[in-house]
């Protein structure tokens, strides 16, 4: 039985519909991320799960039981927000233990629970400090501790690291992931940062304009995107798209990109007729340079350490290759591309839907 289930959830504010037919089934102990651009409905969806807002249509279930009418407290959910607003005049221990005090637990019991949580978050040595005396990362961990101490059934995180600087954000990702691996509490995480989502999640729901475009593991959404939107949203450098046409001949199927003809495996792409306009997606790690092949000119060379991103002028646009290490290559140089057809992602230009080897995805 799924732990948290959204079935045909719709949410409208007056005439404006913010969530359209959202279906999501989350297993016990899973870490699922809602990923999408600002305004796509992530927070709204999370608030519906939390019980802070009511869906216009559809059902929300926890452990098989419909919870639409239950309050946030009854749902036994804890939320960590971007603005975690700790009580400034309370110590770390008091901040973490606050909800337990409100619940009327006895002092020794509160102390024991707070110490346990603080130890798991490496906050034991700062329990007597005020929030202002902590680093940003420690403050964020106190906010997590405050949620953790309640021992909720489900954790909800709404962009909890957005206010942290880049290096701390990366560290907090690892901390939250380790914490989740240790405690195994079902977690739903919201972010607009695809790299954050990829690195932290068991599965990712890519959202766009109030809809889930695709739900899958990081590998599935990266390597097998359901459509052009997902392919473009996931990956850095961004996937590059070229217009092409599917060309069928007795010898097999190929893609015409400008003057170039790229052969595809024969007999495949059965669902797409000759002349289908196709957007061809190529990720930088699949663009190889070779002695022969498709000519292109180096426009920009960007070393980033483990690899070098080389942007090339090609077909009136650019294409980026990710080469290992510090590539010995210069602006203006003429090179040849080796595009492995097995790694191309093909999308129907009209619908944006993925065309797989077996037909339209
Ligand atoms: N209470 C509200 N009334 C009207 N529109 C709202 C309300 N809350 C959110 N919206 C709208 O719903 C859309 C989705 O918002 P939100 O869920 O906050 O997006 P995200 O968290 O993905 O950035 C936005 O266009 C926002 O303006
Ligand atoms: Mg939001």
Q: Which SSEs are present, and which pair or pack?
A:
Elements: E1 4-13, E2 16-26, E3 31-35, H1 42-50, E4 57-62, E5 65-66, H2 72-75, E6 77-80, H3 92-102, H4 107-120, H5 136-148, E7 154-158, H6 166-183, E8 186-191, H7 194-200, E9 203-208, E10 211-216, H8 218-223, H9 228-233, E11 240-249, E12 252-257, E13 260-263, E14 277-282, E15 287-290, E16 294-303, E17 307-314, E18 317-324, E19 334-339, E20 345-348, E21 354-356, E22 359-360
Parallel strand pairs: 3-8, 3-9, 6-7, 7-8
Antiparallel strand pairs: 1-2, 1-4, 4-5, 9-10, 11-12, 11-14, 12-13, 14-20, 15-19, 16-17, 16-19, 17-18, 20-21, 21-22
Helix pairs in contact: 3-4, 3-5
This protein binds adenosine-5'-diphosphate (ADP) and magnesium ion.
